[in-house]
Design goal:
The chain is mostly beta strands. The protein is built from 1 helix and 33 strands. The protein folds into 2 domains: about 5-30 and about 260-430, no CATH class; about 35-250.
Length: about 450
């Protein structure tokens, strides 16, 4: 069956919205921090990913990786602030925590499932696309050391972890080695892990035991040697009962919104549910520790922007799902619209040669154009732009159609206020009903 609709959009790349949607209120709700399961959409070394304000935590089989970026600098670049040029560099820093001597055969479990799910359509390799990826607020590494379990927990307040030392187990086995930090030090029994971007503070550890139904606090302190952290119990404890070690992590400078998202457009479906569309900055999975720069000239090293579409319920109080769409370059979504069957269409611009397209699409190839860098937005298109049009089912779990539309120059990036009209015929075909902003775009198909 062929769905045909006409879109009228303002061709101002970063300000476009449907003319009929002026009164849409974009929800301000942020989900709490969570651990997103890796179901094959990321590097195989990643078990879970957690996005926090100004960075990302990657949970791996032998430890954790923290990737920070300077979120104030990123916001300044996005808003056209100082350094918003094609040579702008975003400061970033990676540190790793290794569970020294941990068991390789630990049991990985998750619990406390989140209320929303995520869909990932990133890159042209369809085998990597994943839908209905669940989020969790608790992850277990069971028997990470002999008879010792590790638990990571997220909430709106942040990330914390616990070690559960079973009766007669040895807590001296727990050794946490940090690499990539500028400095690590102990201050009043608080652990300070300092980077070029932020400081992680592990508050003085609280340890306790449940002895015959009574909570008994156990004096506990950090020990630090050669950037390796362990726990000491100066007054001992009752080894016949489980011991819980309960530190709290604090990211000193990273507060505010949980992700680096910039809203661009919005719409609603026939049931009143709300969609927001925008870009999300991903600093990527780092391959080395220490300070580094994310450059905005040439191919992105660890960072780029993808499209993110988020669906809320009709009152804007519950996040239902988020869907990520994009390739290895940058993308911008400029318009959303829903058809009579509640399928969602996205219109925007892409700079990726591997943007997700579907079989039978109007154009599966990226034509690109000239280098573009938008000072007021901090978004780079290294190889120019093509228009993209994509279609999702109402749950965001199926990419029903996706295509490039473009000629030999940049498309979908016009500073004029001219209203451009397109006809999208979806049996995998997109037909422009008006000009793109650049060189000829082949107006055939149907």
């Amino acid at each position: 069956m062929k769905f045909i609709f006409r879109l009228s959009v303002l061709c101002i790349l970063f300000c476009s919205r449907l003319l009929a949607q002026d009164n849409i209120v974009i929800p301000k709700t942020d989900p709490s921090l969570c651990f997103t399961e890796n179901k094959g959409q990321w590097d195989s070394r990643i078990l879970y990913r957690s996005k926090f304000s100004g960075g990302t935590l990657y949970m791996e089989p032998t430890g954790l990786t923290y990737a920070f970026f300077d979120k104030k600098q990123r916001a300044s670049i996005h808003m056209g602030g100082l350094g918003s040029t094609k040579d702008a560099k975003l400061k970033a820093h990676c540190i790793k925590l290794e569970f020294l001597g941990c068991n390789s055969n630990f049991i990985n479990q998750h619990d406390d499932e989140g209320v929303f799910y995520e869909n990932f359509y990133q890159g042209s390799d369809r085998s990597k696309w994943r839908s209905h990826v669940n989020n969790y607020h608790k992850v277990w590494y069971k028997n990470i050391y002999d008879n010792i379990d590790y638990e990571a927990i997220t909430s709106i307040k942040g990330i914390k972890y616990n070690f559960y030392v079973k009766p007669n187990a040895n807590p001296e086995l727990i050794k946490l080695k940090y690499s990539g930090a500028k400095k690590i030090r102990l201050v009043k029994n608080e652990l300070m892990i300092i980077t070029s971007i932020d400081s992680i503070v592990e508050k003085a550890p609280y340890a306790y035991q449940n002895i015959k139904g009574k909570i008994v606090e156990v004096p506990c302190r950090y020990a630090l040697k050669d950037n390796t952290v362990s726990f000491e119990f100066p007054e001992g404890y009752d080894k016949n009962y489980e011991l819980v070690i309960d530190p709290i992590l604090v990211f000193a400078a990273q507060s505010g919104s949980l992700a680096d998202n910039f809203g661009m457009t919005a719409t609603y479906d026939n049931n009143g549910n709300l969609y927001t569309g925008g870009t999300v900055f991903d600093n990527g999975y780092p391959t080395s520790v220490g300070a580094y720069d994310i450059t905005f000239s040439g191919p992105p090293a660890f960072g780029n922007t993808d499209v993110v579409v988020t669906k809320f319920n009709a009152t804007g109080t519950t996040l239902l799902f988020s869907t990520y769409l994009g390739g290895s370059g940058s993308e911008i979504v400029t318009s959303l619209i829903v058809d009579q069957n509640n399928n969602l269409f996205l219109y925007g611009a892409t700079g990726s040669a591997n943007f997700p397209t579907t079989a039978g699409a109007y154009d599966n190839s990226f034509n690109g154009g000239n280098y573009l860098f938008f000072m007021f937005n901090g978004t780079e298109f290294s190889n120019g732009t093509d228009i993209f049009v994509s279609k999702f089912n109402p749950t965001g779990t199926t990419l029903m159609g996706s295509t490039y539309v473009g000629g030999s120059d940049n498309d979908g990036v016009n500073y004029t206020n001219a209203v451009i009209t397109y006809t999208v015929a979806y049996s995998g075909t997109v037909t422009p009903g008006g000009p793109t902003s650049t060189q000829p775009c082949v107006p055939t198909g149907g």
